[in-house]
Amino acid sequence: MAGLVDTWAQESLSALERQHLRRYLEPLQSPQGPHVRVGGRDFLNFSSNDYLGLANDPAVIEAGRAALLKHGLGSGASRLVVGDSDAHVSLEQALARFHGSDAAVLFNSGYAANVGVLSALFGPGDVVFSDALNHASLIDGCRLSRAQTVVFPHRDVEALEALVKLHPGRRRAVVTDTVFSMDGDRAPLRALDEVCQRHGLALIVDEAHGTGVLGAGGRGLGELDDVEVDLHVGTLSKALGGFGAYVCGSAALREVLINLARPLVFSTALPAAVCAAAERALGLLAAPERRASLQARVTQMSAGLQRLGYSARPDSAVFSVMLGDPQVAMAASARLREQGLLVKAIRPPTVPQGTSRLRISVSAAHSEADVARLLSLVSPLPRRGEEGTGEKRKHLEHR
Ligand SMILES: *Cc1c(COP(=O)(O)O)cnc(C)c1O
């Protein structure tokens, strides 16, 4: 349909193409997993966040199917109207037990959780200190909250503390990914916690890539580093293989989010079947076997990339091969695709300018041979720039 909006859309697409930043959808013709079918071809998949291979697990599917037959598909309304079900409440209780928190509250996605939490808790007069490489949903939550947002250089605790001294406020908090989604490095959680304790700030963390991956029980970086944070966002959509997200904290926090978090108040509840499947996945995640397999692949990938000259670390299931220029990253991804590997290029605004890269994620469902195959094909890639973006400018702004 032609018209003014179509003209605007064409203009925007041309601009994206000029910058080599246009993106395209690629529908899968198979379930999510280490081997997927796209465009009639089979690929070895290194771009999924299904870190434990739970997205297509028979027990998880069966739990979802049983709940689908019991509850039907749609939940009909937001939870505050008639969209709540015993499956929602049961999952929240299971999540609170799993994390040892007083309470948990579900959100429809990690994106919605971060936007909801930050905009519900903070407003004008408050200050949120946010890591420069935080996920877009935290960035958007900061913006929507209308609190002052102070961006600190990536993982730089000294710089953070100096900024904390400079910026007083009513409520103040440090907000960070625990595992950074595109670099796979970890936040210095203990040091951040110390700064928060010293200056009376809350510590709010997003465990999207830590849940199920880190810690002996799979509870995330908080468990691994033995840090008790004030508020923890976890997702059901990555290692748990499903969809949705949750917040762990006090009982009063739960009540305040149910009252004030707009993505929860003004959006239809998750389907009960999604909740029942997630509860089953949570039961499987607690067992150490899958995490042990994932850890073996992480160690293999990290050592292999190091042998190829990259500065990879076994900090998480995410690795990045830094290439700098978006065209170079797209070309590298295309070459791997010719060999039957799906390794997506990540470009701005997902990552800062000049840090386009291949993002590689490994799963417990990958075999040793799968990872070896990728490593055998990575070596001919042109290498420019260094692993780790760690940009340190004086006045940082969120992208
Ligand atoms: C993926 C991701 C989210 C968003 O979670 P969804 O459930 O996919 O909406 C939030 N934070 C981080 C760090 C993420 O990587």
What would you say this structure looks like, in words?
By secondary structure, the chain is an alpha/beta fold. Helix content is 42%, strand content 16%. The chain has two domains: 29-52 and 287-398, Aspartate Aminotransferase, domain 1 (Alpha-Beta Complex); 58-284, 3-Layer(aba) Sandwich (Aspartate Aminotransferase, domain 2), CATH 3.40.640. The chain has a seven-stranded mixed beta sheet with strand order 3-9-8-7-6-4-5, sandwiched between helices. β6 (172-177), α8 (189-199) and β7 (202-206) form a beta-alpha-beta unit. The protein is globular and about 55 Å long. The structure holds pyridoxal-5'-phosphate (PLP).
- Kindly name the structural category: alpha/beta
The first-to-last residue Cα distance is 32 Å
Strand content: 15-25%
Number of helices: 15
| Major pleated sheet | 7 strands, mixed
Question: Which second-level CATH architecture of the largest domain applies?
Answer: 3-Layer(aba) Sandwich
Q: Compute the gyration radius: what is it?
A: 21 Å
Q: Provide the spatial order of strands within the biggest beta sheet.
A: 3-9-8-7-6-4-5
Bound molecules: pyridoxal-5'-phosphate
